[in-house]
Specification:
alpha/beta; 12 strands; four-stranded antiparallel beta sheet; Arc Repressor Mutant, subunit A; binds calcium ion; Rossmann fold; 230 residues; five-stranded parallel beta sheet; 2 domains
Length: 230
């Protein structure tokens, strides 16, 4: 399991940018779309775990697109949180009638947004009971977005957190750079394979501070392996 993919559909650049940043910092994997049409394309290429949908969009409105999704058997199960500038109780009821899983009125705090997303993911069964992954003295908590070795908490970037999450759930196997790209970054993201090396280097540097740089091993001519033993 890699981190949760959140499709952010918002036409206003500033708000979309803010949402992307907040989600990334919370350890999610956000994908941006500027309208329903754009979002529909993304939906098929890279199915999200949740859609964060602005109500007022140019062209097909967010509410209308949500209504359509909830009618399609293949999309019905994707949870939707509607975002709106309107605070009317009537709209909230309408939003939930359409089938949205939750509804938030702008402006809202990043903390509240992240909490609501986690609550919806939990309700939809996407966040399982086990938010903690333990491997030896390593502990990774996907809900609190924490990584620790023994009682020491590590400071890692969202990308390094995702990498560690992948490694800790797939230990002792060798992965090529291409496989890591697909698994950790997603297929629709175009980044160079060398970028992986940069992140691995950073991750090793952090682990080195705890004398654990050996956790991530280079397998010459193939890729990387994460292992507690050499
Ligand atoms: Ca809007």
């Amino acid at each position: 399991m890699s981190s949760f993919t959140i499709l952010v559909v918002e036409d206003e650049d500033a708000i979309r940018g803010m949402l992307m940043m907040v989600l990334e910092q919370a350890g999610f994997f956000p994908i941006a779309a500027i309208d329903a049409e754009d979002a529909q394309k993304t939906l098929d290429e890279n199915p999200p775990d949740l859609v964060l949908l602005d109500w007022m969009l140019p062209g097909i409105s967010g509410a209308e697109w949500a209504r359509r999704l909830k009618k399609e058997p293949i999309y019905r199960e994707i949870p939707i949180i509607l975002l709106t500038a309107r605070g009317e109780e009537e709209d909230k009821v309408r939003g939930l009638e359409i089938g949205a899983d939750d509804y938030m009125t702008k402006p809202f705090s990043p903390k509240e947004l992240v909490a609501r997303i986690r609550a919806v993911l939990r309700r939809s069964g996407k966040i399982q009971g086990q938010a903690q992954i333990n491997l030896g003295d390593l502990m990774l908590d996907t809900e609190q977005h924490r990584l620790s070795i023994g009682d020491k908490q590590l400071e890692v970037s969202p990308t390094e957190f995702r990498l560690m999450h992948f490694f800790m759930t797939h230990p002792n196997k060798v992965y090529t750079r291409t496989q890591l790209l697909d698994q950790v970054w997603g297929r629709s993201v175009y980044i160079e394979e060398r970028t992986i090396d940069v992140h691995i280097r950073r991750l090793r540097k952090i682990l080195e501070e705890y004398g654990r740089e050996d956790l991530v091993q280079t397998v010459r001519g193939f890729g990387y392996r994460f292992s507690l033993t050499d």
